[in-house]
């Protein structure tokens, strides 16, 4: 499928990267002013950069808010799963715990494309972390409603061996 | 809100598995892990039935009140009936060649059983006027005729009973004459019955009673100033012999022409030398009687002139059989002499006493002891001469048939009277099993599993199905003589009434070894010893691993409480008596202390009748351990007669003995004798393991159990209600139950059941007691449960404190701290009356418990403990339901599938013993009575192991199939990928 590679016969390069007419031997066509374009170019690039930063920050906020939808979805799923221990509810609870955890682990990576000197990522990151923590809390809450958290006295004493008895006594009816 | 914790998941899963609480078996699982053995007990009387019978048999009656018909060829039981414990069999005989006649209950019940199949033909009750001895005479020439009766003397009356339907034909009362009849004689071809008896032991009477009417036709009497000791025995039709009250004069009574002559002879004139303890043996030889003294047994012939003539004297260890009539009026009897590991059997003819008609010597295991009884029977050999077979009952209660100098068969009927049970571990498997054996078993294993797989996939032929079943039952694993990983293979060590110790293998119930204990045999130091208790003595676990485990047997010489002790220590692997002690002190109580010495011997205290404690083993080390712990060692006694519980502690050492300790009385609980009488006491099993002190109830609440080993359950009834059911009115009957702390004597709980009475059967385990009694008002049996909780710990409910360990739950408890307790109880109706109650016990105490109830039908019923939970209510909340609490019902359900004995009966059930296996889910159950039954139970199913019939082959096949499938799909996907790339 790589047919024809490396057997180019001719090529025209239309790109013109030069900014001064001096470096060129061909005069500019009439009606064409290079200066205005230069001026234009600098403002344009600034604008472009601003737009990009804007876009990035907007995107970052979007990414930061994404777990919220997830949260709602998870909440719905948990409600659907009910509060008895079975495969489905345990699966959902553990995924609710695992998803925020893995998301938190990769916070840097997720926000890496939006990294920019002009964009302040701290706020979206904090939001992202907060939402994920919220998701995790939801998971923990679910775990508790399932009764899988040791929050009662019974969880700490249910396998406590009987206390040692000081005295020993034996006997009975005469044989 | 329904909540379940991680730790609680396991029981939850168990409950899910256990929706129906039963252990129903499939038909092909019977005999897979259970076994059942049938016994009859020590034979008392035997009647042969060999003439004109296709199946030669012997009908026996035993001391366990069993009548049985045994196959003479193999010793198997054709049929068997276990009469009740109060229905003692007095006499048996065979009538008309087709009925077995038994006289029981002191002669008040006469029954006829069909000989071939043991069906009861008729039964008649013979109410007497005064208690007397009971005699049964079945005429030899009985005809199938209404006028041909059986004669029974019982209750001071002579009865004639039709042999066809058991109708009473006539009855003659001798009580009005004040006569105590000793013998009934029915001369052949005569129309009279002779009754011989005495009045006030000084007058001798003979009566002739008409066979048809029961009229007294003739009466003779003679004065007899010396009085009579024992029996009056007939020597011939008109001569009798008796012993006078001083046991030194023989009296020959002869009746001639309606007159009675007495003739006295001193025993010392006949038998020279000392002659104490003289007894006339009841062997019915014509013209000859036998007299046993402390030195010898003499055969004495009565000549026609009435002269006595000693024919022979033999050693008094000799056992003599009854006479056996041969053809041509000949009579034979057998003598058995005991030699060194041999017995000598000789048969003699009465007419020719000088020589032995037959003499045989049989090798006999010395563990069978002496011969106690012999019954002989003859058969006609091919050369027309008489051959003899002898049925002998040995000292260990075993039954053997001897014929032509060989033991044809033997039955270990001592196992019908087990006194106590314990278990012992088998030896550890040694390394270096031969390769060939492994390969063989591997092949067998594979073959077995392939067959099983076929069975599962329904591809097996009927023959193969039979083969599969055979493999399952004959699993070589289960009867190996080594310890197994799961702890299923054990030795059940049982002590029998005969003083013999048996070790039974739990795999198949075979006797691994048996040993007649020297300490429990009659000797000069110790006469008539009886076994009392069997305890584990040494259990090598960590130290002393080279030693075999051993058991301690404690017995008593004689029957009174103050008689001396007999003790033995027996190696549990070989059955050898390691040590044999005859201490001088008595024993009324054996206490198993929870301390071991450096060789892992268990310390025991034997309490004597004077309330001294004797420490065993008698080593300085044991004494030191005991001295260290003695401040915390207590014991108590229950005096049922006086109605007193007394508690004791150690005071000082006795004067001379290093290992003897004086007691000091610490407390007494006196039950008022006019209102309470102790009828039952129960304690927890010493080796019971409790997993946890907390009980988690609905809504994650916790209750702390009052788990104490020093708790005694005492049941008392009002004295009027201490008789059998129905002897008291509901208003008179009060049943009171108490839970007593045996260290301090404190009564933890007391409850009364008005209108209820015993018998009470109870079981105490962990923090609960379940007891069974009769409710007179409801006319039904009831079962009640009491659970006891510790209130002093109830405050420990703060999670944070529990997490950081700020609680008093692990601090040692003392009974003197008088913890507050709280009890819950509930009662339910129960259909059956009960013979024994026990509870399953497991290694760690995690598995839920089942009550094992020995029912009146001699079966063992498993009842889930959840049915007797005092927290049951009519409408349990959702949370309580999730906890597994059942809605309250007034009666306990009896689920037919939960009979652990399934189709078997453990006749004469007396006890149910449970032993934990190493596998937590499983408990070993041994029920004993006249029969033995053993099985393995998993009250919560085997949640910790695969079942034995798990199909490994199917698993293997599945795995192989999956691997193959993975490989094939992998190859296919590779190929497809390549094709895609080429496209």
UniProtKB/TrEMBL annotation, chain A:
Pfam families: EMC4 (PF06417)
Its membrane topology: Multi-pass membrane protein
GO cellular component, one term: endoplasmic reticulum membrane
Keywords in alphabetical order: Endoplasmic reticulum, Membrane, Transmembrane, Transmembrane helix
Main location: endoplasmic reticulum
Compartment(s) where it occurs, according to its Swiss-Prot or TrEMBL record: Endoplasmic reticulum membrane
Ranges annotated as spanning the membrane: 76-101, 121-141
Segments of this protein annotated with the region Disordered: 1-44
Keyword Nucleotidyltransferase attached: no
Keyword Membrane included in the entry's annotation: yes
Stored InterPro entries: TMEM85/Emc4
Annotated family: Belongs to the EMC4 family.
Name listed for the protein in its UniProt record: ER membrane protein complex subunit 4
Taxonomic lineage: Eukaryota, Viridiplantae, Streptophyta, Embryophyta, Tracheophyta
Automatic annotation (TrEMBL), chain B:
Signal peptide: 1-24
One annotated GO biological process: protein folding in endoplasmic reticulum
ER membrane protein complex subunit 1 C-terminal domain location: 765-982
GO cellular component: a single term: EMC complex
UniProt keyword list: Endoplasmic reticulum, Glycoprotein, Membrane, Signal, Transmembrane, Transmembrane helix
Record keyword Acetylation present: no
Keyword Cytoplasm among UniProt keywords: no
Residue ranges annotated for the EMC1 first beta-propeller domain, each copy included: 25-413
Membrane-related topology note: Single-pass type I membrane protein
Quaternary state and interactors: Component of the ER membrane protein complex (EMC).
Entry similarity comment: Belongs to the EMC1 family.
Protein name: ER membrane protein complex subunit 1
Organism of this sequence: Artemisia annua (Sweet wormwood)
Lineage: Eukaryota, Viridiplantae, Streptophyta, Embryophyta, Tracheophyta
């Amino acid at each position: 499928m790589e047919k024809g590679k490396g057997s180019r016969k001719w090529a025209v390069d239309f790109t013109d990267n030069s900014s001064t007419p001096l470096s060129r031997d061909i005069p500019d066509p009439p009606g064409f002013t290079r200066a205005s374009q230069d001026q234009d170019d600098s403002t344009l690039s600034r604008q472009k950069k601003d737009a990009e930063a804007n876009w990035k920050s907007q995107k970052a906020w979007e990414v930061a808010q994404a777990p919220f939808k997830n949260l709602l979805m998870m909440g719905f799923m948990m409600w659907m799963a009910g509060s008895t221990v079975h495969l489905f509810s345990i699966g959902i609870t553990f995924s609710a715990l695992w998803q925020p955890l893995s998301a938190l682990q990769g916070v840097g990576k997720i926000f890496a494309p939006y990294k920019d000197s002009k964009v302040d990522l701290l706020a979206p990151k904090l939001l992202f972390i907060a939402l994920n923590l919220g998701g995790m809390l939801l998971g923990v809450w679910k775990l508790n409603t399932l009764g899988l958290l040791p929050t009662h006295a019974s969880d700490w004493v249910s396998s406590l061996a009987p206390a040692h008895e000081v005295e020993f006594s034996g006997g009975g009816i005469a044989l | 809100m329904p909540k379940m914790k991680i730790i609680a998941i396991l029981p939850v899963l168990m409950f899910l598995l256990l929706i129906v609480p039963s252990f129903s078996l499939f038909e092909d699982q019977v005999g897979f892990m259970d076994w059942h053995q049938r016994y009859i007990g020590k034979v008392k009387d035997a009647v042969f039935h060999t003439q004109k019978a296709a199946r030669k048999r012997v009908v026996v009656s035993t001391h366990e009140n069993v009548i049985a018909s045994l196959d003479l060829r193999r010793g198997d039981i054709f049929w068997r009936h276990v009469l009740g414990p109060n229905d003692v069999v007095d006499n048996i005989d065979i009538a008309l060649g087709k009925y077995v006649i038994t006289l029981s209950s002191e002669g008040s019940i006469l029954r006829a059983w069909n000989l071939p199949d043991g069906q009861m033909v008729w039964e008649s009750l013979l109410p007497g006027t005064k208690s007397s001895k009971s005699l049964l005479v079945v005429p030899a020439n009985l005809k199938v005729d209404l006028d041909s009766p059986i004669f029974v003397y019982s209750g001071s009356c002579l009865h004639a009973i039709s042999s066809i339907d058991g109708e009473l034909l006539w009855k003659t009362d001798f009580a009005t004459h004040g006569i105590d009849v000793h013998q009934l004689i029915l001369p052949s071809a005569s129309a009279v019955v002779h009754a011989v008896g005495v009045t006030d032991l000084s007058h001798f009477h003979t009566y002739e009673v008409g066979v048809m009417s029961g009229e007294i036709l003739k009466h003779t009497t003679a004065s007899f100033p010396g009085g009579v000791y024992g029996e009056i025995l007939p020597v011939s039709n008109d001569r009798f012999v008796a012993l006078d009250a001083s046991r030194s004069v023989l009296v020959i009574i002869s009746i001639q022409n309606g007159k009675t002559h007495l003739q006295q002879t001193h025993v010392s004139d006949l038998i020279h030398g000392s002659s104490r303890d003289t007894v006339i043996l009841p062997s019915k030889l014509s013209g000859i009687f036998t007299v046993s003294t402390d030195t010898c047994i003499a055969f004495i012939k009565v000549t026609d002139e009435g002269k006595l003539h000693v024919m022979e004297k033999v050693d008094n260890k000799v056992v003599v059989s009854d006479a056996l009539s041969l053809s041509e009026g000949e009579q034979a009897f057998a003598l058995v002499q005991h030699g060194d590991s041999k017995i000598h059997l000789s048969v003699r003819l009465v007419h020719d006493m000088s020589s032995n008609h037959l003499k045989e010597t049989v090798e006999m295991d010395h563990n069978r002891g002496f011969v106690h009884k012999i019954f002989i029977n003859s058969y006609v050999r091919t050369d027309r001469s008489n051959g003899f077979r002898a049925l002998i009952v040995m000292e260990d209660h075993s039954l053997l048939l001897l014929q032509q100098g060989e033991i044809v068969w033997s039955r270990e009927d001592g196992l019908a009277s087990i006194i106590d049970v314990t278990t012992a571990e088998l030896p550890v498997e040694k390394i270096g099993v031969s390769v060939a054996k492994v390969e063989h078993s591997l092949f067998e294993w594979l073959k077995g599993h392939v067959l099983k797989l076929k069975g599962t996939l329904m591809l097996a032929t009927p023959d193969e199905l039979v083969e599969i079943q055979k493999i399952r039952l004959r699993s070589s694993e289960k009867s190996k003589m080594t310890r197994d990983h799961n702890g299923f293979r054990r030795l059940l060590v049982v002590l029998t009434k005969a003083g013999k110790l048996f070790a039974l293998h739990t795999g198949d119930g075979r006797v691994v070894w048996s040993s007649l204990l020297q300490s429990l045999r009659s000797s000069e130091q110790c006469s008539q010893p009886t076994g009392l208790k069997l305890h584990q003595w040494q259990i090598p676990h960590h130290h002393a691993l080279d030693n075999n485990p051993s058991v301690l047997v404690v017995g008593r010489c004689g029957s009174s409480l103050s008689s001396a002790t007999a003790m033995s220590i027996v190696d549990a692997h070989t059955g050898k008596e390691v040590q044999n002690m005859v201490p001088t002190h008595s024993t009324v109580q054996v206490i198993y202390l929870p301390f071991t010495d450096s060789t892992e011997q268990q310390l025991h205290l034997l309490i004597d009748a004077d309330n001294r404690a004797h420490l065993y083993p008698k080593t300085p080390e044991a004494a030191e351990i005991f001295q260290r712990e003695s401040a915390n060692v207590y014991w108590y006694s229950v005096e049922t007669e006086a109605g007193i519980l007394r508690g004791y502690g150690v005071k000082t050492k006795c004067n001379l003995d290093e290992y003897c300790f004086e007691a000091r009385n610490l407390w007494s609980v006196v039950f008022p004798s006019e209102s309470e009488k102790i009828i039952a006491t129960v304690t927890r099993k010493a080796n019971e393991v409790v997993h946890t002190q907390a009980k988690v109830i609905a809504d994650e609440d916790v209750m702390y159990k009052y788990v104490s080993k020093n708790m005694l359950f005492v049941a008392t009834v009002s004295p009027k209600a201490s008789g059998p059911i129905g002897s008291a009115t509901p208003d008179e009957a009060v049943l009171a139950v108490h839970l007593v702390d045996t260290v301090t004597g404190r009564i933890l709980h007391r409850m009364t059941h008005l209108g209820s009475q015993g018998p009470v059967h109870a079981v105490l385990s962990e923090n609960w007691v379940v007891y069974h009694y009769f409710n007179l008002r409801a006319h039904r049996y009831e079962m009640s449960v009491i659970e006891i909780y510790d209130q002093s710990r109830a405050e420990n409910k703060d999670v944070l404190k529990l997490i950081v360990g700020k609680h008093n739950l692990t601090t040692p408890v003392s009974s003197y701290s008088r913890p507050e307790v709280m009890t819950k109880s509930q009662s339910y109706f129960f259909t059956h009356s009960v013979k024994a109650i026990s509870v399953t016990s497991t290694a760690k105490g995690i598995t839920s418990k089942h009550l094992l109830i020995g029912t009146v039908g001699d079966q063992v019923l498993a009842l889930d403990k959840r049915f007797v939970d005092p927290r049951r209510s009519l409408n349990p909340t959702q949370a309580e339901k999730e906890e597994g609490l059942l809605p309250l019902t007034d009666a306990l359900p009896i689920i037919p599938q939960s009979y652990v004995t399934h189709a078997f009966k453990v006749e004469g059930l007396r006890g149910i013993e449970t032993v934990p296996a190493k596998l937590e889910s499983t408990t070993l159950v041994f029920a004993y009575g006249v029969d033995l039954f053993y099985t393995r139970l998993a009250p919560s199913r085997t949640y910790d192991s695969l079942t034995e019939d798990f199909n490994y082959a199917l698993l293997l096949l599945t795995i192989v199939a999956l691997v193959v499938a993975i490989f094939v799909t992998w190859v296919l996907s590779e190929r497809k990928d390549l094709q895609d790339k080429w496209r």
